[in-house]
TrEMBL record:
InterPro entries: DUF2812 (IPR021359). Keywords: Membrane, Transmembrane, Transmembrane helix. It comes from the Bacteria. This is DUF2812 domain-containing protein.
Amino acid sequence: MKKFRSFINFDREEAWLNRMACEGNLLTRVGIFYHFEKINPASLEAAARIRVDYQPEMRAEDFTDYVTLFADSGWRHLAGSRNSGAQYFAAVEPSASLEIFSDEASKAQRYRRTLTGRASALLVFAIATFVFIYSGAMGVPPEDWYRTPGLWEMSGLEFVGAFAFESIFVFFRNIAPRLIAALSLILAWQMLQQYRLWMCSRGEATTAA
């Protein structure tokens, strides 16, 4: 089974994954969709605590050591790769510690690591958007996207072929720049929300200390 969800708040993501496990659906993989396998709702796995960490890209040997460290503490690695950033663990052993983080301060740092990872992507998107705006690609009205002379006077297969051929160029020339600009705004908004969550988590950590 797979489901589409988008989370900015790690605590809400964990709560949802734990509810899914209690209902008999244990996380196995995360990409565009969350992938689950069916398990017995009465099993130990269904009662496992699922936690999310975020780590920047790691070397293969560092990733192996990272996963092994958690395994030694009773936490099974459910999903995530050395390049994915987000890492998912479940406490499936009775000896597992209550949390994967030693304190609230270290828990809050996953938001900082997420911001660092997304900042580079936002920079690339922002530069590309600026280039598109500067080149004038963003200012072309939709009625001028198709430039083939006499295109709209064609008919039948001739029209279909010419339209389909130029649509490839229209996508990269006119649609892709707008999509990249939209992704830049979405990413910037997500980073703002996670920055607020980081500040809030830091405040809670300071209060707890």
